[in-house]
Amino acid sequence: MSCTVEKRERVRRAAREIRDCVPTVAVDVVAPNASQYDAWTLDAVLHDTGGVPPEVLRELALAELTLRPTPSQAEYQHVTATV
Question: What's the number of domains the chain is made of?
Answer without folding.
Answer: 1
